[in-house]
Amino acid sequence: MQHRLGTIERLATLWHDETRPATRWACIAAAAAGVVGAALLGRAGAPWSRAAALFALVLGLAPVVIRMMVARRRARDPRAVMRATLLRTEPELGRAALRAMALTEETTADPARGSSELARLHFARVLGRASLPTLSARAARAAWALVVASLAVAAGIFAAVVRDPFRVVEGVDVLAARDGVAPVPVPWLEGVRMSVEPPAYLHLDRRSLRPFFPTSLHVGTTLTVRGVPRHDGRQLVLTDGRDEVAFADDGGGSAVARWAVAGDATLFVAARFGEVLVPEPERLEIHAIVDHAPVVRLDGAPSERRLLDHPRVPVHWEAFDDHGIREVALVLRSGDREVRRPLSTPQGSAVADRGGIELRADDAFLDQSYLPVEVTVEALDDDPVSGPKWGRSDTLILLPPQIGEREAMRFRALRRARDHLTDLLADRLTAVVSDPTAHVTAELAAQDEVDALFVEVLDASWGGLRLRGRLAALVRGQLEQLARALKEAQRLPSPRAQEARVAATENALLAIDSGLGALGTIDTRATALKLADAAMEAAAVITRGADPAERERADRLLFAHLDVLAAGGGFMTELGTLGRDLGELVENGVRRIERPFAAGDRYHARLAAEDLAARLRRPDPSFGSAGGSGHGGVESGGMAQPGEGEPSEAAEQMAGLEDALEQLRQEHAAQLDEVDQALRDALPAEDRQALQERLRDTARRVREAVEDLPQQASDPASARAAAAEARSQAEAMADALEKGNLGRAIEQGQRAMSSLDQAERRGREAPAGSSEHEVGQAAAQAGGALAELMREGQGALEEMRDRASKGARGALEKAAQRERALAERARELGDASAKSEAPLPREMLDRLEDAAQKMDEAARELGQGEGARAQSKQQEAQRLLEMSQPERDGDGGKSRRDGDGKDFARDADVPPEARDKRAEDFRRRVTEGLGKHAPPHLREAIRRYTEGLLR
Amino acid sequence: MRAPLIALAALLASGMAMALPFKAQRARLAILDLALDDAASIIEGDDSPEVALERGRLGLYLGDCDAAQRALERPDLHDDDELAALTAVAKGCARATAGTIELRDETRGVMVRFQDDEDRALFPMIVEVAARARDMLARELGVRLPDPVRIDLVRDQFSLAAHTGLPEKAAQTTGTVAVAKWGRVIMISPRASAHGYPWQDTLAHELTHLVISQATRDRAPLWLQEGVAKRQEIRWRNVTPFDGVPSHDSVAWDGIQRGIALPLTGLGRSIAMLPSPEQATVAFAEVASFIAYWVQQNGEAALPKLLEAIRDMPADGDVSQALEKVSGATLATWDDRWRGHLGALAPALPASVTIGFDPPQAREVARRARLGELLLGRGHHHGAAIELSRAHAALPSDATVRCLFADALRGRGDEVDAAGLVDDPQAIVFPTGRWWSLHDFFTGREALPHARMHAVGHAPYVPSVACHELPWGEYPHEPVARALCEAALRLPPAW
Q1: Dist. CA A644–CA A158, nearest whole Å
Q2: Residue of chain B with shortest Cα separation from A617
Q3: Interface predicted TM-score (ipTM)
Q4: Which one of A639, A648, A837 would you mutate to disrupt binding with B, by most B Cβ within 10 Å of its Cβ?
Q5: Which chain A residue lies closest to B368 (C-alpha atoms)?
Q6: Could you give phi then psi for residue A620, rounded to 5 degrees?
Q7: Is the dihedral of CA A715, A716, A718, A723 positive or negative?
Q8: Chain B: closest CA distance from residue A921 (Å)
Q9: For the whole model, what pTM was predicted?
């Protein structure tokens, strides 16, 4: 077997020796081709390319593996050696050798088949017949073929690599990438330069950066990276590993990329191969400077304040921002309601702003809020990069008075005073007078105490609510009557004087009691309307609570509304008869809402809330009859009883007198306008034209005179504030001049002069060099110029009036008659008031009498054709008329929220045909409304202001 | 065997075919008869639009306004005035009844829904009056209201209007306190009026309306409705000296003389909708006087016969014919006779009574009374007595002044004089709840019968009335009275 095997080995060695070098080179070439191919394919950086690269690699290494497998097999299997060698060169001999080898194996295994030695001998002889040269030649041919193939592959590899050998490195790097990043950094750019451009709103200059040196940049800054690519054709990017921007050719041989800073980042340049980045070794650390929201500080916040104790809440704020403040706003929130009011709009990217306003309890929002009001000041920055941001101050929580609380306090105070007057009456009724003089002295002291109580009530304020208007006039009038009766008793103490004092006290008590009742009714109606809103909101939140997502908040709000209703109902019960009735009804209404709600029945809870709201919107007594007896009439089993009469009609009489005075005031104002118009119409057209041009010129000069004065100020006690007011008044004067209303122009001018004088005085008191001091100086300068212009205006006015009076004699004579009639009416009203149960206070009656006298004088002047002088008297009369009127109580009379308010919520357009009329009606209502409810001394000014607004 | 079955099936089929179109009409008649269970059975399971209107009506009669609203708000219903009116009432009623409470006395068959839960203290008294009035009406008019008698005690005229469809303005003008509608009595709580009102008689009055509607299928004219109701409203209780003072005859005659009396057939849709309380008073007096005269002439048994005749008259029939059938004369004849009777009587109003205007001394009385009230409120009994004595002197028949004056006298310890002010029913014309209460308190056993009941029947929420004139902090022992006293004391004090 050794011999035979030795022979086979020789055969194998012969073949191998001949072909081995060529085979090795072929394997090396194939492997190299596989590697290069894999690298080039893998450079595409896509999943498919990785698979292809693997395939190429496997393909390249396959010859090596095959060669090893073949060698191993041949070592194990002599037949394989013979098939690869002898069978290819001498097939017949090869087959014979295979048969001989088979025989050898069979006889070795089974001696019965024959002699194994003979078989081996036969096999050796057969092999011995083989031609060694033939075998060598065959092996040489095979080796040559392999050499040729190897060379071809080597040439191919060379061709692929020689164009850009670095691609193979890239390919390998890409193939070795993990998570999309290649493991070996590669420098891609040379001569790197970096520069930054901050966002425009920062107003900072563009600058260079030291490349790859850590830096801090504002958010929104644009970073520019520029460099020369080391390798052409690579897709270079600037990236932080998450976002990337591509480099672009700058046309000068460099690549450039721009990066917008949005946050902290580590930037690097990389080449993108499909999904794989091959980074540069160097990195740039960026710390982003964020634009913070403004910081707002609100004095006194956070805290809680009761509006009843603090009817005026100063709101002083300071706002700071790192770059600039665009707007500062006051934000009020209560329940679901929110209002945002601009406080300031700083210019020029101011980084700080401060100011102050006063929030008053009668502010429209606060007045209509019954849930706690959150007050914040919020500032908006000017960040265009991430969008403007609001910074919010701490919260000042204002606890508004409960609905009806202030009214109940006022009612209580007046009732207390009434009760003391009742005590006074009791003393007087039961007094036993032995010494009339001493008794009068004692009564004087007692009456002084009662007077003091009423004065206290008249001066008091309940969260901004005061006793004003007709009721205050009624009280003052009654106190005067009491004082007069006592004075009479002092002058002449007698039993008759005692009776007169008792009667005066009775009258005063009944009149004040009547006024108190009227006050209660008015306050109850106003309170009911507010509570109706609360009930409607309760209904709305009950509905909203049906949505599970909203339920928790809606239910919380509902309980808050129910608390408001319950408390409001409680206060209402204190407000006299109607209040007692409706207050009790509200308390029941709350129970009606709570009952189904507690049982999970939202539907009926909502219905009950709506029913309460509907009822409160009609704040009439629960039971009424035209007979006014308060007893059941129809269906009651008994007949309607006669009315019981009113104990006092003082309240009604005072209301009637007030209306009559208001009517007189309006008519006289109309008379004033008519005279004015008559004088204007009497002026020739060319004179009017010339005068108008002159006035326009004066108006222009007035505006110029005050243009350097400030427009607004936060501290009302400052020179700046006075100057700002003067500017506003001077501009109003200019407006009036342009409109040809010289009278008003002069009046505004006088006010402006007064304000300028005040500003100058305050400025003088301020330290030299301070802004206040400068404002004072500017005011002094403007004052001089304005005085001169005033003189001019006044001259023009008189000249115009003189000329006009001559031409308007007929119209003026008619006006004189009307003026006399109005004077007569004023006197009649005074007399009627003095005789009524509710006489006006003496001071008002005197003014009314003075007004009548001025009207008489005006009538005389009008009769003599002295238009200018008549107008002056008329204006005095008008002012006196206004001063003789009780100041209207803002909370009394018809509520400004009459109706359901829905009309105001609609944003519908007015049909064209109705537009003019609606606009006219609107103007009239606004003019009359504002004029009516203003304090008398301001009415005229407000009317003019309103007219200006609406024109 | 098969022939009878086929015939029965045909009969049933034809019966059903006949019944279907008349379901609504049958249900409506059942509702008017107050046979509400029958009405419910008739329309049960029928969801057609034809019966929806009756289902809505039934809901209103049952006081289930939510169900009525649901039934009436179907989009497939033919929109007409009746539907619109019913829907509006159903909506108003649903709103007004939300969150209310309901108490029921099963034994006496009375159900009361309270809009204000504080009125629960009145429940035993309401049941008592309703039960007695129902018995009386069944006895005298021949028709018994079915169980339960439904009463809604509402808080104000706003809710009264919502329940009934009566315009609120009309209710305010005439001082309407109760309406019988939809088979229910809807009545304002006496707490709505500071002085209260005679709510017990009012309840009896309204129950009479229900009975007449039931007895006549709602075909009785207004004059008959109100005249009979006026007659019956006091007959559930014992007579008091104030019943018929001033007499209906005298008030009616005064109205006729002054030309403000309306013809019996010209009272409009409701007395509550007349333009003034004065006209309403005269109208009530007219119809009450007429019915009293007619009953007097024909006997008490004629009244139920008249109701029956009206019910049975043909669709185009006239009440005058029914009247003629029962009493032998037409309405015009009876009207003439009655006016002749009044003319012959020429009854005069008591001197202290005026209708439609205040007596001349009313102003002075009001001034003194208010001063007295204020002084009393501050504990100045002597001063109050001075003022109130002047008021009393000016109008001695005024019960309110007498009561205030009595308080002032009591306050200064003059109990005897105080008692003298309230002991004589002849001294006053219109008693108030307080008068009854003080009368009961001062005169004790010699008081008019049931004075306490009348006191509560007028002004249950006046604390001194509800608490039997006891000192502050003391309560009546009887549980019902104590509950009422506590409810009265929970009311906010007068200002």
Answers
A1: 127
A2: B158
A3: 0.92
A4: A639
A5: A647
A6: -95, 165
A7: positive
A8: 29
A9: 0.71
